[in-house]
Amino acid sequence: MSITSLAQLQAQVHDAEAGFAGADWGVVSSGHARLDAVLSAGGLRRGRLVEWMATAAGSGPTTLALQAAAEAARGGRPIVVVDRRGEFFPPALPPDFPREQLLLLRCRRDDEAYWACTQALGTSGVAAVVSLLPIADERRLRSWQLAAERGGALGLLVRHLPRQPEVCFSDLRLLVAPSCAAGGRRVSITVLRARQGRPGAMVEVALDDHANPVSDLAPGRHREVARRA
Amino acid sequence: MRILCLILRPGDIEKSPAARNSPSRSTVGRSSAAAQSMCDAALRTRLADEAEEFSPLVGWVGDESAAALCLDIGPTAHWFGGEERLLERLAEWVRDRRLMGTAAIADTLGAAWGVAHFVGDDSPAPWRRRIVPPGRQAQALAPLPIAALRLPAAVQTLLHELGLYAVGPLLELSRTALAERFSPELLLRIRQALGESPELFVAHRPPPQHEATLAWEAGLTSTEPLLEAWRLLLPKLLTPLAARGRALSRLLAELHDERGGQGRFVIGLLRPTLDAAHILGLLQLRLEAERVRRPIIGTRLAVLEEAAEAVQQQVLFDDLAPPLEAHAWTTLVERLAGRLGNEAVVRIRLCSDHQPERAWQAVPWLARRSGNNSSPLSPRGRGAGGEGAARSSRSPNSRKRPPPTTAEQKPLAPPRPTILLAEPRPVRVFAVAPHGCPRQYEYEGRERTVVESWGPERIETAWWRGPSIRRDYFRVLTDDGRRSWLFRDLRRNRWFLHGWFD
Q1: Which residues in chain A have Cβ-Cβ distances shorter than 8 Å to B290?
Q2: Would you tell me which of A59, A176, B360, B479 could form a disulfide with B449, CB atoms 3.0–4.6 Å apart?
Q3: How far apart are CA B263 and CA B235, in angstroms?
């Protein structure tokens, strides 16, 4: 195949991806300027899906997704968190997280959780939908993608998978890998796939485990926490 | 709100000159009323009926031994020339029925009940009365015994053992300390008496029941005919509501099967509505989740809760119209709650508890009478969250609390993981010292070397909570970069994985 043909094919792919873009709902920050800088849109696009992938729990994708959700919710719009396992722990949210705007769905079955995600993504006015689901069926993502394009919500999918799925209906697929260096917490984020722009970019960001004021957790005089050296 | 609490006792007409002199207009019965016990249900119903001349909202509160007739006189007192004049009329009303009574008026039901039961001496006066000025319920309750707060006997006994006999010293104690050491009812009663939490009483005359039933002979297993039945029944519920300017807020749907069983579910609405199509859509969603297992031979719909119909005035300019997004959000919450159930659609409330399992509560978004069902998309101030709503409903003269300090001034608790396992999972941990920090642990068949750890953070539950919990928590960074939350159970000397900093 000639270089000209390759260039034509590349142009066709680019045009197809541009046509795929759908309605423009605006761009929000991911919460990390360094990550925004390597994304072609300058941030995360509303009305799209963003996958935060990690190979195992404890790597940081949930924290990153929640930070992005908080950025999307500036202005008072609600955030929907869909939790299938009942393991999401709200006291971990930072003090400045808009908790009063958060609606948590505790689904008992997978089909209910998938349906709830579709409904929330397709509702205008929802800032972000954070999915904490063990997604097994990639075809479901297609319906989520269409719902997000229709409603304008930013879909943030936290996925713990040993390897990257072949099919991708997301605007962005980001791989979160922790740094095992001692000291401040840092994670590297690699752009695995991007509808617009080039994949392969990698940035390292600091990720703090937020400390909440004691009174938010336990304002009592009785102090049950005792630190020892 | 002004509540009148009236305690009635069988009277002695021979000792009551006023009763002897006054012409009796009693419909209860001239000779028998004094002799009948106040426990007589029929008599109580008739008294409540007749007391409706003072207020349209009348009900009995308390058990039989300490029952009191409660009247909401806030909207009606001025028709009698004020509360003093109303009490004069009420005294005549009591005498006419050859009864004795004690009446108290206060801002709250709790304060009125306590003052009516415990104020004054024990002399058998035929009529005693007391008016607590608006906002003065704390001062009125302070000298009264703690029984005035309508507490369970066990709580009263415990308070007595601690040397607390009057309400005043109890109110001086820290609310947080009370919440940790006593049942929630104590704090609830205090808040209700002071007007910080709402308290409603049940009117003796129940509101009109709206329900509709449909039955058929052959059992149905498909959902389409059932939806058709609901389509027929809904107008029968909604038309009477609409005639009274009311709208549906909560709906009960029952399914009757061939074996006499009964499936039932409740549909909650964020915004009261008369839209039959919308309600039918919610019923259909719930039906999909319920899965009909046995042939259905009948159904019943009943109005559980109604509210004033929300009327949106037409506006000339689009800028003044309510945002369509707010409507979409309301619809979304109703649909989610309709399909998943109210308990699955929740907001977050952090609790003052260090034990991770009890550090937060899931509050249903469509919680009944929460007063906080507003949308985040509503105008500023309505959806400000539970704490703000509670503060705003506090009586202006209730106990002052120090202003909240800023987050920067508060000490910080150690970080918490974003993922908390439903059950802590046992892990094998290797530590250098018997009570030292972990150096290596085995999980999912793989050994993980600890690069860094932070802790211990000792979490112990208090003795009054029953079987105690004593844990030393560690935040752990392993060689694969993962951050986990481990604890050593000090009672059993075993290690567990409890969460991930994901």
Answers
A1: none
A2: B479
A3: 22
Rounded to two decimals, the ipTM of the complex is 0.83
User: Do both B478 and B369 map to the same domain?
Assistant: no
DSSP letters spanning B223-258: SHHHHHHHHHHHHHHHHHHHHTTEEEEEEEEEEEET
In CATH, what number is assigned to the domain containing residue B269? 3.30.1490.100
- The answer to whether the bond into B434 is cis (omega within 30° of 0) is no
Q: Which stretches does DSSP call E strand in A98-153?
A: 102-106, 128-132
Q: Report yes or no on B296 lying in a domain.
A: yes
A27: which residues sit within 8 A by CB, 6+ positions away?
A41, A42, A43, A44, A45, A46
**Going from the N-terminus, what domains does chain A have, and what CATH number goes with each?**
23-87+98-183 (3.40.50.300)
Closest CA of chain A from B212, distance in Å: 30
B348, B413, B419: residue with CB nearest A211: B413
Scan for tokens 């009277």, then name that residue: B11
Contact of B358 with B466, CB cutoff 8 Å: no
* B439 and B352 fall within a common domain: no
pLDDT tens digits, one per residue of B331-377: 899 999 988 988 899 999 988 788 898 889 999 988 754 444 445 54
pLDDT, position A113:
93
For residue B321, give both structure tokens. 């119209």
Distance from CA of A139 to the nearest CA of B (A): 22
Domain count along chain B:
4
Rg, Å, chain B Cα set: 29
Of B159, B182, B202, the residue at which a domain comes to its end is B202
Query: What is the span of the domain harbouring residue B269?
Result: 211-339
Nearest to A60, CA basis, from B427, B496, B414, B480? B480
pLDDT of residue B205: 78
Q: B336 with B345: CB under 8 angstroms? A: yes
B49/B186 same-domain check: yes
CA angle in degrees (0–180, nearest 5) for A60-A168-A179? 20
Is B19 within a domain? yes
Cβ distance of A57 and B419 shorter than 8 Å = yes
